[in-house]
Amino acid sequence: MPTLQQFIADSVSQLSFAPIRLDSPISLDDLPTPALVIDLELFERNMHTMRDHLQASKIDLRCHSKMHKSPIIAKKQLEMGAIGICCATVSEAEVMFASGIEAILVTSPIVTSDKIDRLITLATQSEQVEIVLDSIDGANALNSAAGQAGIKLSVLIDLDPGMGRTGIEPGPAALALAQHIVDNCAHLHFTGLQMYIGNCMHITGFDKRADKYRKLLQRGIDTRQLLEDAGIAVAVFSGGGTGTFNIDSDIGAIDDLQAGSYVFMDVEYRDIGGPGSELFVDFAPALFVLSTAISKPQQQLITFDAGIKSLATDNGYPELNGVEGVIYHFGGDEHGIVQLDNPSCEIKVGEKYAIITPHCDPTVNLYDYYYPHRNGVVEEIWPISARGRSQ
Amino acid sequence: MPTLQQFIADSVSQLSFAPIRLDSPISLDDLPTPALVIDLELFERNMHTMRDHLQASKIDLRCHSKMHKSPIIAKKQLEMGAIGICCATVSEAEVMFASGIEAILVTSPIVTSDKIDRLITLATQSEQVEIVLDSIDGANALNSAAGQAGIKLSVLIDLDPGMGRTGIEPGPAALALAQHIVDNCAHLHFTGLQMYIGNCMHITGFDKRADKYRKLLQRGIDTRQLLEDAGIAVAVFSGGGTGTFNIDSDIGAIDDLQAGSYVFMDVEYRDIGGPGSELFVDFAPALFVLSTAISKPQQQLITFDAGIKSLATDNGYPELNGVEGVIYHFGGDEHGIVQLDNPSCEIKVGEKYAIITPHCDPTVNLYDYYYPHRNGVVEEIWPISARGRSQ
Question: Is A357 part of any domain?
Fold first, then answer.
């Protein structure tokens, strides 16, 4: 009979991280649906596009692993030059750390002793484990725990871009918090600022998005200056995402970009538009839910086997890849009902189609495995080791 | 290196089904959040209410395990008299069967050979494994596979209640399909009809719901008569759910009820109302997401650690249990932002609150474990063994 702590630790140590090689290659058509598939050619192209763009812009990539939840993909990003990864939760960080990744920034504040203890356990093993905080109480709790463990914990101050989610207000409040860390928290090492402007990422229209982003980011830039004027070194200013990657490179204020979705893309991001373009086409959708048409109860409808439990529902519609003139409606937990207005091809019961996901992050979190393929051939299965690690 | 089939089989055989007993009881406050918790007292009360009601109404319970995904709970339902369980997918059925449950109805049609092979593998081991079908092609495919395996597979015809999701049209089309099974499918045993009227379950207002349900169900009742008039025995008419449990008992047409949500309830079901009541109060919310307040960036807002990856977003808002005058907004994958309009109590950073889920089924599917508790004391952890089994 384990303690809760043992139970959680065991649940991490029992995970497998490596690709599972199949005894012989199979076709996409052989997969049990709904299945989460990666088009490796597009996936690699997206990774190269981001690397090349950031290299030219002298911005580092601190890729967000909350999107893919996969140490396999995180390691590919690190091999391609990312300086580290972001994790949204301590339990995600535990999985990534257990897989051998040491440079981890936890991008959301934690306040309870159980989470702080778990973070400190990681930080004791790697000086590159960092976390954000957004309050004096939060700083004191981390400082006390780091002191007890005999370590110096690196922390960034999380700035609220006006979302009202997490973060302290930019300006004097942030300065006061930084000053508190420097003056009173001997076991914390203040490394910089995080400002993730999530309320800008999905603004439709490049110019509109860029305008609002510049205005909001300016408060972060000013706060950095405020701290430096007060003699507090701000080694790192971390932020930005897929939706601002080509805006951040123009502004030049962010040191590292916390992008995640560029790897897979989704309907939500594709539709925000790019410079001079209605669609955001710098990155291509590379993640799909493969689904089978299983029933045709009415002439103008055909039902697929991917519903609420296979596709995130928080935003927008799924899309059948390469098919025009149809609308994919959620038809309950296990079904999607496709309305056949003016379909560009005939869809028959028993056929499998690839669906572009409305929102990649929470869709990935519904699956245990990726099936990566090249030209429709699957050779490996990749565990989504951090799936469900929302704690 | 496994084949895909071996890999899938291994993923089932490696599951654990039994409760994990903790070395000593812990408090709800000790749980890492977001955590999925069950109030055992309310959970048991819900189970007793349904059993007593159906016993008095002479309707059997064929409870839907797609909701809880847990062999532990399914077995409790069977011990209390349920005649079997429903599964929405073959992969759910595989997990339930591996845990020792033999009476399983798969409630959605399957059409591809991989799924049919997997179902036949189960049916070869238990005559109580049944499935619905809704087309002649579907019947022929199942018949052929059953014949090759040397078994007789029990099947129900799925009737479309006008949802346009799955099912054949009630009336002559259904009769023709039944006749085809009886005449031409020597390896299928036609046991009856399924009519799950999902488009009625959440109609707000008891009388309005009952009226529409009676009208739609009549087509199923007539179809049963049509088949029996044609000399085709309809041993079972299966259907209904939590939202119609007290309508079905009044009508008396359904032989077994496919209810699932009554065990846990959610905001969506609570709000449909009952006889003479604005709320549906026959069953009490017994499932909660325990979440911690982690940040307070603005005076009128406080941020919790349960977002899109911890609460289903397909319908309605989460609710803080026992707190009035606040609204829970989704604040991204990992956060909920609670708007403090006129809160009935002060909510402080670091405190944990229980959230009533908007929709229980897809919320359960986000978690690996339940933490059942009695009066706030947790002694066991229950694996959600069929989580993610959407195939």
Answer: yes
